[in-house]
Design brief:
about 40% helix, alpha+beta, 2 domains, Nucleotidyltransferase, domain 5, globular, single chain, about 290 residues, three-stranded antiparallel β-sheet
């Protein structure tokens, strides 16, 4: 039987079709267009799903979707999503209604962590923590092959640990959340605050490659925030763990000073350093090194 999966993100929605042996047959990505609202996002999911089904000529298949945020065990509604228009919505039953089928739904970071535990950087480890850094910042915990969700469905959400009590206001109501400092949206907001100009993160990264002084200064701050946040996780989880994030490679390769600082902290709290199966999104830029 074929398997169809969709990853719903704040910026993009990506779908994939696998055969019975897990071989990728094809995938497609579309923009989320969250600014157009919840109903529009539902239609985007349906359109992508229909295309994927057409690609296998309607053959029998399973279907699952990973979403930002979590389903509240109390209400059944989505909560804690950085795509704010989705919070408080009965996403799962509405998807089942418009797609006309049963839908398996889980937090996207939990899906990622389980995939890494089974097939990726965490394979063979008892405890795996998966880091997602995109439009938002999420995390998932897998222990002995099982996802830990917690009674509120929010276990692993390291993006809402505060690292600066007087920091920027987060949509969750707290200040200084990890997500406000190291997610794509958070980085763009912090750059605008620091330099008075809005820039997409891709452009900031491009400037960093080129050795632009502002970008280099800004990225050093990012490396420090990221390292501190990840080090806090290691203190909690201890020893056997695995993380897969392009930003980890950015931290380790791009600024030797920051790299040494956080490596020292990692070595004090973990017997093994994390591995990554995702190559760096920002390769080392010699002109940007201190």
């Amino acid at each position: 039987m074929f398997r169809i999966g969709i990853d719903l993100g704040g910026t993009k929605i990506e779908g994939i079709v696998l055969d019975a042996k897990g071989k990728e047959l094809f995938r497609k990505r579309v923009e989320t267009q969250q600014e157009k609202g919840y109903a529009h996002i539902l239609n985007r999911i349906k359109g992508l799903y229909d295309e994927l089904v057409a690609g296998i000529q309607g053959a029998p298949h399973t279907f699952g979707i990973g979403t930002p945020g979590a389903v509240s065990p109390r209400t059944g509604f989505l909560k804690n999503s950085n795509t704010l228009c989705m919070n408080g919505q009965p996403l799962k039953p509405e998807l089942e209604r418009i797609l006309g089928r049963k839908v398996e739904m889980q937090n996207d970071a939990n899906c990622f962590a389980m995939a890494e535990a089974l097939f990726g950087a965490g394979k063979g480890r008892k405890l795996v923590f998966g880091v997602i850094m995109g439009t938002g910042c999420g995390g998932g915990i897998v222990h002995k092959g099982e996802v830990i969700t917690g009674p509120q469905g929010i276990a692993g959400e390291w993006g809402h640990m505060s690292i600066a009590p007087d920091g920027p206001l987060c949509y969750c109501g707290q200040r200084g959340c990890v997500e406000t400092y190291i997610s794509g949206g958070g980085l763009e907001a912090r750059y605008a605050e620091q330099f008075g100009k809005k820039k997409p993160f891709k452009e900031i990264a491009k400037d960093y490659y080129a050795g632009d002084a502002k970008a280099v200064e800004f990225m050093k701050i990012f490396f420090s925030h990221f390292g501190r946040s990840l080090a806090n996780l290691i203190d909690v989880l201890d020893r056997t763990w695995s993380s897969s994030a392009a930003a980890f490679q950015i931290l380790m390769r791009s600024t030797p000073k920051a790299s040494r600082q956080w490596r020292n902290m990692f070595s004090a709290t973990a017997s093994k350093r994390p591995s990554s199966n995702i190559s760096s999104a920002i390769p080392p830029a010699s002109s940007a090194r201190p």
